[in-house]
Amino acid sequence: MTTPPTDNPLADLPPSYRPAKEEPAILERWLAGDAYQAQASDAGDPYAICIPPPNVTAPLHLGHALNNTLQDILTRHARMSGKNAVWLPGTDHAGIATQTVVEKRVLAEEGKRRTDFERDAFVGKIQAWKDEYEATITDQLKQMGCSCDWDRQAFTMDNARAKAVREAFFQLFKDGLIYRGKRLVNWDPVTQTALADDEVESKDVDGNFYYLNYPVCDAEGHPTGDHVTVATTRPETMLGDTAVAVNPKDEPRAKYIGQYVKLPICDRVIPILGDDYVVIPDPDSDDSKARMASGFLKVTPAHDTNDYEIGQRHDLTIINVMAPDASISIDHGWPPEEKSGENPTLAPFIGLTREAARKAIVRWFKEQDLLAEVKPYRHAVGHSYRSHAAIEPYYSDQWYLKVTDDKLAGAALRALDASQREASDHPALSPGSAGESAASDSNTTGLTFTPPRYAKTFQTWHENIRDWCISRQLWWGHRIPVWTGIGSEHEEQIDLWEAEGKVAKLKQSFSAGAQSWDGETDSSGNLIRLMICVASDQPSIEQWLENNGFQQDPDVLDTWFSSALWPMSTLGWPERTPELDLWNPTSVLCTAREIITLWVSRMVMFNLYFLGRLPFRDVFIHAMIQDGHGQKMSKSLGNGVDPMDIIHSHGADAMRFTLASMTTQTQDVRMPVDMVDPHSGETFTPKFITASGGVKVAAPTQERNGKSMVSSYGLASGEVKPSDDQPLARNTSEKFELGQRFATKLWNATRFALSNLAEAEPDAVVSSLSLADKWILSKTVRAIEHADKTLKAYDFHNYAGGLYEFVWNEVCDWYIESVKPVIKTPEGAKSRQVLATVLDVSLRLLHPVMPFVTERLWSGLNAVCPQRGVLGLDPDECDELVGGNWPAADRALIDLEAEEVFPRVQHVVGMIREVRAGAKVPPREVVDFSLHMEDAEAERVRPNLHLVEALTNTKMVAVGPDIPKPEGAAVVTGPAGIGYLHVQIDTAEEAERLNKRKAELEKSLKTLDGRLSNEKYTSKAPSHLVQQTRDQRAAAAAELDEVEKQLAEL
RNA sequence: GGGUGAUUAGCUCAGUUGGCUAGAGCGACUCGUUUACACCGAGUAGGUCACAGGUUCGAGUCCUGUAUCACCCACCA
Prior knowledge:
Radius of gyration: 37 Å
Mean pLDDT: 82
Strand content: 15-25%
Low-confidence stretches: 1-6, 511-525, 685-727
Largest sheet: 7 strands, mixed
Helix content: 40-55%
Structural class: alpha+beta
Number of helices: 32
Oligomer: single chain
């Protein structure tokens, strides 16, 4: 036992906790001390988490704060538990999102468009943006206390990650899983790029069904005088119609099959064909389509995915009628034979936007008396998740990854743990399929979602997966490492390199044909297109290719391609690093549900494909942070609150604790926000438009002339920090006070303990403990077990809640209050040791969620009482809690007797307090108290009556089986006996109180009697429950007797 | 159109395999500054667990249906 410091140990532990003052110094110490660093060694079981890399588009918001708090809790817990734990930080270049943000800024500040710059120059601007926000994000994470290994910070587009992307692409290309395809993509006409299916959001919009009459004609175009009526929501696409379809089973209309119509405006003669896809009209149908349908479907293969498929079935011409900006154009796939002749009817429509063209075409049909009808119709339309523009199905050349291959989607499906997999007839899961033999391979199976329901999202997505369009017409991203040339004269040299593994080749022969429209194939005969994928580190080959007429593909990869490699690339893949073998598979992926398909599933596919093992086995899907209107908090909606706001106002620990305690398995978390106008400083609540499809934000920035907003962080810290079109909102929720109060409580409990521990030495040899000591040690062991159990189950709400309950109620309200009378005395030495130990354990248990305040208090505890622990609970010593061990307790400390007796004391205390409060006895007045109870019970409770005295400010004057009731005393009834509080009471109030208790007991008795008189209950219910009911009934009856007796005596 | 989740005190939410006399925090009310803490302590009030059926000795919990809200998926005739 060291000598306590002579100076006042509390001098540097001020009366209240000021997180803003304490946290920065602690953070600096951790960072300087390399507290988060991990080495790829065999020191402890490996534990690794990859951060879901935040986009570098904007600062983090509370959704990220939640996500990262949970990861930090897990990482710190693992580290304290002796694991070799690493948390790998990094950011995502977020291709389209970042480019869009920068394009907007450049347009606003310089009045220039992207195309006004050279590619490299513009990428440089995006790079600068990335540098700025990466720094901001990193700083935010550090201040939140995230214990990432900062030496390993990665970026999805840095050199190491670029190498991984390059290698992955090359391997997939070589294996024949990457191909060039010409088909309909989801085209965003604003950003002018293709989008993956997942990047398309559907929204309900109010539109119309237009019924257009097409004149029927013969094969030569001579009108028969008849007409058919097609129904469409998109009249403007009629310019690209190449057929009209009818369901062959549609009796009255099937007769038109084989005839032709003359397409208005274009005068194109197109066939009427039969296809099952067409819905047969039925005005009484439940299906709205059947109610709206005319039976004739216009077929526009270039502008509708269904029509495209019909076109494939019937070998129809594909006529694209739009330019990439979705204006009507005859230059992007219009049939040459129609183009050659001037068409004065068509001319006025050329160049119109699709919206204008729709109106113009409808007007034209009306003028020609060909518009049969217009009906309003509400339907879903795909929109770009980035620009929010309506998606145009667009026929173009793109790169695809064949994720439908069994080695990708099939392997991912088989990876799902059998306990979470639903019965399926998917070929990958059928008995005897390729992967069935691997079913027992622990490397490739056992993927488990928490909560389990999300496994279904994963499974369904993989079962219905389509090939992944991986090319994007952007500048910000990983350039596709493929060089293309026409002709075959260089094939020999390329084959040589291919044999050496330096390049891979894709050969496509094609002919100039009617279906092409992009001008590439205007010569006659078959052509050879060579697409050469070059492996990484082959600059001379790239140079050679360019010297010989090959051109690198201008497109970049979908941002999720590099994200999908994250658990590998952050650990050094494609190099076979020690880190890779140690920490991949990682331990858990902790993310929100929105990216299960975009990200989780692709990591699973890639890790399985390239390394033959899962990237992680556990996937924890946590709640979403929403604003006060139930909308998810996101950058694009502008309702994101900067975590720095909360850190400044409440402290990082308070934020973390509150977020963790709100993380339940089902509920999303609502955090009301206000917006702050940076110019006026006014606070306003964002407006919302309620549509039947959901609540949508009227984006505040757009309403304010596109002027930038600032976060309240900027305002709070006195510096205005514009965040462009990604404004941050201000938190108005009081929820964070929960964590703040708790940190303060812990702080003050520690101050109390330290002040006492400093004055007298604890007794390191702990034996013959008091009831309170035994009870709190027992509860401490249970708290440790509860924390372990809940963290293992990713049950953060109960982890935080359990510790809150333990520290506040059990330690502070009961234990500390119980030992106060003795804590300063020589007899209190044992309690001092117990208190120090309990505090030690509390700080350790709380450290993962509240690292700062626990670290701060830890140094105080070390200074005052360096030797802590009792037999069975003897934690290690350490200077810094960040490097401390997780407590382990001997279950022998669980004291069932103490756990039974102490609650009796608590009950008596509760009853006395109730009476005192009811009788308005001044709290400072010590009153006499006597307790009438049976001998056996009295003997049990008697040694602990001083606790009752201390906790109720009473003096125990008599205990035993024959204690008479003093005249006028208040009566306290309870399971331990009957107590008499020696105060003069108001008879009426006493009667009221007793009558109330009587009513409660009678009600309870009625319930219990009802249960016991039910023979089916007594015979069928488990015997211990029946016994419990009997005991309850007996106790209630006895107390009721007593209450009635006391009432009678009043 | 399909799927998932939610509906419990004024508010925000817990409630594990059915055993509940339904809990917590905030807010409300009463009392209290005895040297850890007023960001505190003691106490009180407040709920036919969305609705309607069903299973069961027993339903907040399981089943069926209805209503409302949110989210995800789906090829926009």
